[in-house]
Give the backbone structure.
Amino acid sequence: MNTPVAIILLVVGIILLIFGFTSMDSINSSFTKFFSGHPTDKSMWLLIGGAVATVVGLVGFTRGRSV
């Protein structure tokens, strides 16, 4: 994987994680957690997508530098 692509994935992943954690602390998510016991789907997808993009970016960055 190209190093610039890996860096972009890493940055996008971190941004998605930040949005996911912020979304989990919103009032809407608080009401959903109160009544259902689970965070909103949007929060979960942001966290999952951010984690996947961050891991792929890190792997691509470390493999791109060693070659």
Summary: The chain has a mean pLDDT of 85. The radius of gyration is 15 Å. The first helix runs from residue 3 to 24. The chain is about 85% helix and 0% strand.
